[in-house]
Amino acid sequence: MISRVLAADLRRHVGEQVRIAGWLHRRRELKSVTFLIVRDRSGLAQAVWHGPAEPALPEESVIEVTGTVVASAEAPGGAELHDPLVTALSGPAAPPPFDLYRPSLTAGLPTILDGAPTTLRHPVLKAGFEIAAASVAGFRAAMDGLGFTEVHTPKIVPSATESGANVFGLDYFGHPAYLAQSPQFYKQALVGVFERVFEVGPVFRAEPHDTARHLAQYTSLDAEFGFISSYRDVMAILREAIAGMTALAAERAQAAMTLLSVKAPIVPGEIPALHFADAQELIARHTDTDPRGEPDLSPGHERWLGDWALREHGSDFLFVTGYPMAKRPFYTHPDPARPGYSNSFDLIFRGQELVTGGQRLHRHADYLAALAERGEDPRSYAGYLQVFEHGMPPHGGFAIGLERWTARLTGAANVRQVALFPRDLHRLSP
Amino acid sequence: MISRVLAADLRRHVGEQVRIAGWLHRRRELKSVTFLIVRDRSGLAQAVWHGPAEPALPEESVIEVTGTVVASAEAPGGAELHDPLVTALSGPAAPPPFDLYRPSLTAGLPTILDGAPTTLRHPVLKAGFEIAAASVAGFRAAMDGLGFTEVHTPKIVPSATESGANVFGLDYFGHPAYLAQSPQFYKQALVGVFERVFEVGPVFRAEPHDTARHLAQYTSLDAEFGFISSYRDVMAILREAIAGMTALAAERAQAAMTLLSVKAPIVPGEIPALHFADAQELIARHTDTDPRGEPDLSPGHERWLGDWALREHGSDFLFVTGYPMAKRPFYTHPDPARPGYSNSFDLIFRGQELVTGGQRLHRHADYLAALAERGEDPRSYAGYLQVFEHGMPPHGGFAIGLERWTARLTGAANVRQVALFPRDLHRLSP
Fold first, then answer.
1. What's the predicted TM-score (pTM) here?
2. CA dist B311 to A388, B168, B288, B305, B350, Å?
3. Which of A195, A311, B57, B285 has the most CB atoms lying inside 10 A of its own CB?
C-alpha cells in the first residue's frame, strides 16, 4: 500500500500518486464536478473529479483517498488530488448534528457542550485546545530550563486543602476523604525534597458559582520553589513561565493562532506591578467607584486595571501585589513592613485574574501562630506542619489556571469553551 | 549579596568567594576541624574550617554558607568552601527522625512512607523520582515528535469506565459520580478530534488488593491514535515511547541512575513479540506448570517470560499479543482470524506487565454487538457510543503505568517506593 501523506504535506508531492486519510469534512457536487474535502490532524485536503460523488458518503465518514497530486492555487494547501479512488474505512457515518464544515458553529454553548465528542471536531473549537497543549509544553520547557522537577501528587486527600467549603467528599475504603483543591501542601513539602517543583494536573472545586470563569475540575499549572529572597523572585519565575507559554503557543500552534486571529501577548521583560492599596487608590481616583477598604478586587476592577496596564505600560499583564491577609489562605507570608497586607500577588492577564502566588510561611512557629489567629486546630494540619519542623527555606510559588489562560488568549467568553468535557454545577457529562 | 552557586557548580569557581545554600546534610566535628555537608537541588557541597561547629545547628537546618572555593580531591564534587560564614535561614531544625546522611534508610517501608515529607529528602529515595520525571519528559518528547496532541480529560465521570467494581464513588452536587479509572472513553473520542492524543494524569482504582504492584491512584501515560492498519502499528508507537523514556532518563537523570546503579534497558528496534497461546505453550514445555487454557498470565509466568526474552533475544522487553477476549474489556478488537483471541497486547518489562494496549473496536454496530454479548445495557454507554456513529477510524492505544516503569527500572520491590505519598487500601496520608 502507498504510505499515507498528511494534508499539510500534499504540495510537496505534486506529480506523485499518494494516499490521504481522514474525515469527509465536506462534499460538494456541482453540475459535473465533485469536490471532497478531507480533514486530518494536519488540516484540510481536497480531491476533485468529473462526475457524481460515488460512493455518496455522508460528512464525517472516515475515508481514504488515493490519487495524483496536482498543484492548484484554489485548493487548501495549494494542491489537490485528481482521479481519486475513495474508500470508506468504517462505513458511512450518521450525519453529524452540526455542519462542521461551516466557518463557525451557531449553536448555543450548552448544545455545543452536550455534543462535545462531535462538535470539538470543528476546526475553530479544536484550535483552542491546540493552543492550550502548546502552552503547557511551553510552561514545562520554562520550568525544565530553570531546574524544576516535575511531580505527581495525590488527588485524594484526608482533609480539605484550601478551605472547608467547596470540596468534594468521597468514600475511601470506608473512610471519609476529599478531592484535592490544589497540590499546595504537597508542593510545599516537596520543596524540602527537590527545592524546585512543578506539577500539571487536575484540581477540584465544588464551586457553587455558575459563572463563566469557574469549573469544578480544571488544569492547574503549579510551581513552588525555595531559597527566595522575596516574593519578587516568585514573580520573576512566573514571568519566565508566562514567556515560555507564549513563545511555544506562537511556535507550535501557529495555524490555530492564525485561525482564531489570536494576537500573541507581549510579555515585558519586567511585568508592571502595582500594590493592592495603590491599585485601589487608582480606581478610586479615576472611576466613579471607591473600592478602598475592600479586601479584594471585583471582576470589574480587574478589567479596569487590565485596561490601565495596557494604556500606561503597553502590557497585557499586570501584577497586583500585597493582597490583604484577610482574603489570603493561612500559609501566606504577611508583609512585615505593612500590617494587614501580604507578600502575595495576583497576575492579571487582559483584565482577568490568571494566577495567584506569593511567598509562604516557612517557620513552624509562624504556622502555629497563623492557625491560632484564625481559630483553627493545628492538629488538623499535623502531617503538613511536620514538614516545617525539619528545615524549610523561605519559599513561594504560584498556580496558573490553564483554562483561564486559554480563554483570555483566544478571547473565549467562557472557560467551558476551552475545557475538554467541562465539569460544573450542572454538568457531569459527556 | 553574592549570588548563589549550586553545589554541582562549585569546582568551576575555585579561588572565588561564593555563597551556597541548602539543607545541613551532615555535620562532622573532628578534634580540631569541622565539616559541614550542604545538600541542594544539584547535590552535595562541603565546607571546612578549623575549630568547633558554630553555630551548632542540627542536621536538616536550612543554611547559607559564604566562603572561598578551594579544589579538594576528597570533597564531593572536587571542591570545598574554606573560611566559611554560616547563616541559618530559618532557625534550627528539629532533628530528623532518620539520619538522612547515611547511605541508605534502614527503616521499614511503612515507617518510611509515614515520614515521607522528610524521608523523601534522602538522596536514594529522591533519585527514583528524578528518574520518573525524566522518563515522563521522554514520553512527551516522543509523542510530540509523532504528531500527538496533549489533552486533559475529566477525572469525575458519570459512570465507571473499565468495570463496575474497583471504582471510587463521590457525591457530585447531589448526584452520584465516580473517579475515572482511565481516560479510555475520552481518549478514544478525542481520536475523532485530534487523530493522535496523549495524556499524563492520575487514574483511580479502588483496588481491594494489597500487593506490591497496586495503588489506588497512579500516574498513567496514555496514548490513542487513529488510522492504524493493525495493532502492530500501536506496538510500533509504544516502542518509540519506551525508547524516548529510556533515552531521557539516561540523559537528564544521569546522576540518579548512577546513584541507584540502574542499568538503562536496551530497547530493540523491534521488541520481540509472542502470541499469548505460544507463550503458554512455551511455559508448558519448559516449566513444571501448564497454563494452557487459562485466560491470563500469572505474575510468575510473566517473570518466566521476561527471563526467556532476555535469554533468547537479549531484550528487557517482550510483547505478548492476542490476549483472550474473555479477560479484555468490551472495546477490545477481536482477532478476526483467531476466534477467542484479541488484537491486544501487554508489554512485559523485566518480567512484569508494564503496559496494556491494542486495537479498539471502531464501528458502532460492533460496539452494540460486543455489549449485547456481555449482557450490558448500551444505554449506560450512550454518550460514549455516540462517537462511533459519527465516523471513527481504525484506532488503538496503550497506557503505561509510570510507577511500575520506575519500579522496574530502579529495581524497587514495591511501587509504593516510587509513588510520592502513595494511596492504597490502608493509606490515605500523608
1. 0.97
2. 50, 42, 19, 10, 12
3. A195
| Residue of B106 and B342 predicted with greater confidence | B342
The alpha carbon of residue B82 is apart from the nearest alpha carbon of chain A, in Å, by 22
d(C-alpha B427, C-alpha B430), whole Å = 8
Asked if A414 contacts A407 with a C-beta cutoff of 8 angstroms, the reply is: yes
CATH 3.30.930.10 fits A117-418, yes or no: yes
Angle at B3 between CA B101 and CA A243, to 5 degrees: 100
Report pLDDT digits (tens) over B130-143: 999 999 999 999 99
- Residue A164 pLDDT: 62
Contacts of A227 in chain B (CB under 8 A): 4, 21, 89
Chain A residues near residue B363 by CB distance under 8 angstroms? 90-91
Q: How far is A267 from chain B (nearest CA, A)?
A: 24
Does the N-terminal peptide bond of residue B55 adopt cis geometry, omega within 30 degrees of 0? yes
Question: Which pLDDT score is estimated for B380?
Answer: 86
The total number of residues shown for chain B amounts to 430
Q: Select the residue from B42, B122, B130, B173 to test the A interface by mutation, using most A Cβ atoms within 10 A.
A: B173
The letter for the amino acid at A31 is K
ipTM value for the complex: 0.97
A380 vs A295, more confident: A295
> Between chains, do B420 and A151 touch, taking CB under 8 Å as contact?
yes
For β-strands A217-226 and A196-204, DSSP reports them as antiparallel
Check: CB of residue A322 under 8 Å from CB of residue A338: yes
**CB-closest option in B153, B156, B391 to A60:** B391
Q: In the predicted model, what is the mean pLDDT of chain A? A: 95
Interface test with A, best of B86, B363, B421, B427 (most A CBs within 10 A): B421
Assess contact for A25 and A57: CB atoms under 8 A.
no
pLDDT, position B36: 96
Determine the 3-state secondary structure of A319 from DSSP: strand
CA distances (Å), B362 to each of A89, A383, B188, B257, B334, in order? 10, 48, 9, 42, 11
- Which chain A residue has its CA at the smallest distance from B430's CA? A383
Whether residues B190 and A120 touch (CB distance < 8 A) is answered with yes
pLDDT at A53 > cutoff 90: no
Cα dihedral B183, B186, B191, B193 in deg (nearest 10) = -140
CATH 3.30.70.260 fits domain A7-88: no
Taking CB atoms and an 8 Å limit, are A21 and B158 in contact across chains?
A: no
Out of A42, A172, A362, closest to residue B168 by CB: A172
- Which residues on adjacent β-strands are paired with residue A45? A38
Looking at chain A, which residue has its C-alpha nearest residue B118?
A: A387
- Are B140 and A136 a contacting pair at CB < 8 A? no
Q: How far apart (Å, rounded) are the C-alpha atoms in residues A94 and A96? A: 6
* Residue-range domain boundaries for chain B: 7-88, 117-418
Using 50, 70 and 90 to split pLDDT, how confident is the model at A161? low
CB-based contact A428 B177, cutoff 8 Å? yes
Taking alpha carbons only, the member of B383, B344, B388, B399 closest to residue B224 is B399
Q: What is the pLDDT of residues B75-96, one digit of tens each?
A: 988 999 999 999 999 988 998 8
Chain A residues touching residue B402 (CB < 8 angstroms): 152
Q: pLDDT tens across B336-387, in order?
A: 999 999 999 999 999 999 999 999 999 999 999 999 999 999 988 888 999 9
pLDDT band with cut points at 50, 70 and 90 for residue A89: very high
Quote the minimal CA–CA distance from A31 to chain B in Å: 27
